[in-house]
Amino acid sequence: MSALAASGSVRTGREGIMNSENVVRVTKVSSNESRGCEHCDFSIDNESVSASINHYIAAHHYRILHVGTETIGDGNGGPWHTTVAILGCDDPPKVLERKIAFPPGLVDPE
Ligand SMILES: [Zn+2]
Predict the structure, then answer these.
(1) Does the pTM exceed 0.85?
(2) How far apart are CA 94 and CA 71, in angstroms?
(3) Does position 64 have pLDDT exceeding 80, yes or no?
(4) Which residue from 3, 55, 59, 90 has the highest number of Cβ atoms inside 10 Å of its Cβ?
(5) 72 SS3 class
(6) How far is the CA of 10 from the centre of ligand 1 (A)?
């Protein structure tokens, strides 16, 4: 028996490839965006991408499909690098409907 087999860890070469099979819903977490979780009242906070990722994994059974960087504009013509995570779920909970209601008198001037 080889040392590798004895350790119970046999490399297949596909460890780094995220399995997106059966995913029916994806969501994005970004260090550039704050928003509410689409399934509950948790705040998806741009200050802590890891806490947001942990929330989707622990509370809603998502799994990480991709983590990387996204380059967007900084508003002054320069690049702005953000961290993004794409999470997928095979059996997502219901998506909350958030209706934004404008109080009377606060109407779009156009
Ligand atoms: Zn949630």
Answers:
(1) no
(2) 31
(3) yes
(4) 55
(5) strand
(6) 35
